């Protein structure tokens, strides 16, 4: 992963970059945003799956398949 302000783990990336580069995808700002979006999408899917929650309609089958496939691809 390319080093930028979005992918940096902390200021130690400069001096210890070779030792922390494997952590960038998880502990960087990018990692935080990536996993936060994944959690929000899963939460929305759970809300949509409950018939009692009228404000969030159920996902179409193709949308659900697309989200599942993207989740598998990102791991």
From TrEMBL:
Task: Report whether Lyase shows up as a keyword of the record.
Answer: yes
Record's protein name: Adenylosuccinate lyase
Does the record's keyword annotation contain Lyase?
yes
> Which UniProt keywords are given for this protein, alphabetically ordered?
Lyase
EC number(s) on record? Answer: 4.3.2.2
Enzyme class (EC, first level) = lyase
Q: Which organism is it from?
A: Klebsiella pneumoniae
Q: Enumerate the InterPro entries for this protein.
A: Fumarase/histidase_N (IPR024083), L-Aspartase-like (IPR008948), PurB_bact (IPR047136)
A GO molecular function for this record? lyase activity
One GO CC term of this entry? cytosol
């Amino acid at each position: 992963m390319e080093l930028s302000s979005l992918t940096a783990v902390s200021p130690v990336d400069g001096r210890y970059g070779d030792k922390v580069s494997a952590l960038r995808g998880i502990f960087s700002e990018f990692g935080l945003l990536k996993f936060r979006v994944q959690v929000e999408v899963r939460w929305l899917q759970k809300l949509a799956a409950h018939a009692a929650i009228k404000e969030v309609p159920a996902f179409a089958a193709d949308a659900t398949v697309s989200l599942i496939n993207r989740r598998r691809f990102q791991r």
